[in-house]
Amino acid sequence: MIRVPPGRAGQVWLRRRLATAQHGIDILSRKQRLLSDERDRRQPEAAVARAAWIEACSEAERWCSRSLRVGHRNQVALVSAQVEAPATMTVDWRNVMAVAIPGKATCEFPDFSRASASGGSSATDRAVVALADAVSKAAEHASIQRALTNIDAELLQTRRRLRLLERRRVPQLEEALRASRERFAQSEREDILRLRWARGH
Fold it and tell me: Is there a contact between 25 and 152 (Cβ–Cβ < 8 Å)?
């Protein structure tokens, strides 16, 4: 139930709120359209990134197995100890209609040359490179998946707000405005009748 000020002031009050609600519908519709377009663009990228990640994992597993077959059991641990620093990942973030969406994910790795010179086999060197590539592909896939998750969550909220405005708020305001006009017209007719009655007496 909407409490409306009496008379013409109430109609002005309702018209302003109706205009605000219609403007909100326009903004939310545009937001929904842009987010849907962004999701449609990202969806194929997610499939490609996932396939690339799975392939990179298979390649890394293949070289790790070869490394263990041709080298000693502690070779991977020995090589790992020579890596000077951890890998880092940076993600470019962008906003689409006030929604934070991750863009390109970039991994940076320390110099593997010392690890390569630590006495490991060539298969171990290839395994290290393959593992780094798998990590990079995992970061790319995770970035796209996070983008889709953020977009889906915001799309859900946007659709709910839009549905609330279109199906409840606007019809309520329109009905209240119609009722206010009818009450005002009825009041004017009664005033005219009273004036006529007063003049007749």
Answer: no
Rounded Cα distance, 158 and 160, in Å: 5
83 touches 110 (CB < 8 A): yes
pLDDT band for position 106 (cuts 50, 70, 90): very high
Angle in degrees, CA 99, 164, 146, rounded to 5: 25
151, 154, 160, 165: CA torsion to nearest 10: -110
* pLDDT of 160 strictly over 90: yes
Tokens coding 158:
């946007």
pTM score, whole prediction: 0.76
Of 77, 78, 68, 57, the residue nearest 132 (C-alpha) = 57
CB 29 within 8 A of CB 161: no
**In this structure, what DSSP letter does residue 107 have?**
E
Contact between 87 and 108 under an 8 Å Cβ cutoff? The reply is yes
β-sheet bridge partners, residue 90? 106
Q: Give the per-residue pLDDT at 61.
A: 93
Q: What is the DSSP string of 74-104?
A: THHHHHHHT--S--EEEEEEEEETTEEEEEE
Give every CB contact of residue 51 below 8 A, 6+ residues apart in sequence.
none
Asked: is 9-180 a CATH 1.10.287.3240 domain? The reply is yes
Measuring CA to CA, which residue among 110, 74, 99, 111 is closest to residue 157?
99
Would you say 147 and 101 are in contact if contact means Cβ atoms under 8 Å apart? yes
